[in-house]
Amino acid sequence: MDEHAKLRKGLQMDTWTNMVTMRLDTSGDDEISWEEFEQAMFFYMAKEIFNEAAGADGKLSAQELQTKLAADNEIEELLGMDEAGLNIKRKITAESWASILHDRIDESKDGIITWDEFQNGMLAAMMS
Fold first, then answer.
1. Torsion sign (Cα): 42, 51, 94, 118
2. Which residue range forms the structural domain that includes residue 43?
3. In this predicted structure, what is the pLDDT of residue 5?
4. What phi and psi values does residue 61 have, to the nearest 5 degrees?
5. Which of 29, 48, 64, 115 has the most CB atoms within 10 Å of its CB?
6. pLDDT tens across 45-92, in order?
7. DSSP symbols for 10-36
8. Is 78 helix (H, G, I), strand (E, B) or coil?
């Protein structure tokens, strides 16, 4: 049983609902708007992709990013890349594509992408 299932099992439904609402309701109006829900799902998916690519150390190297980008289009889909963008990606090497993304996301320029940098990079791309 995963941690969330154990937590839910130990809490009454109204307590669980209140906890979820507090986490998703970023405006503090006791309602979850579509935008709040969408943003929460975006970050949940981003975290899953990051964890899968980064591995046990929780840091994403340029090589790990390159491997993830070559394996599938999850990052591009998360960013809402359309078919034209995917066609551009297909025309350049996985190494070049990873380098472009890595340079934009690695705020500290230390060669490693942390979760905070990945989250900020995904959010900036989503907003543009």
1. positive
2. 34-127
3. 65
4. -85, 170
5. 64
6. 889 999 999 988 999 888 888 888 888 888 888 877 788 877 777 777
7. HS-HHHHHHHHHHHH-TTSSSS--HHH
8. helix
Dig out the tokens for 113 from the structure.
């992408």
What's the CA gap between 33 and 84, in Å, rounded?
A: 31
Tokens of 34: 């579509």
User: For residues 30 and 106, what is the distance between their CA atoms, to the nearest angstrom?
Assistant: 35
Q: Are 26 and 110 in contact (CB under 8 A)?
A: no
Number of domains in the chain: 2
- In Å, how far from its chain's centre is CA 74? 10
Same domain, 27 and 55: no
**Mode of pairing for the β-strands spanning 112-113 and 60-61:** antiparallel
Do 25 and 67 reside in the same domain of the chain? no
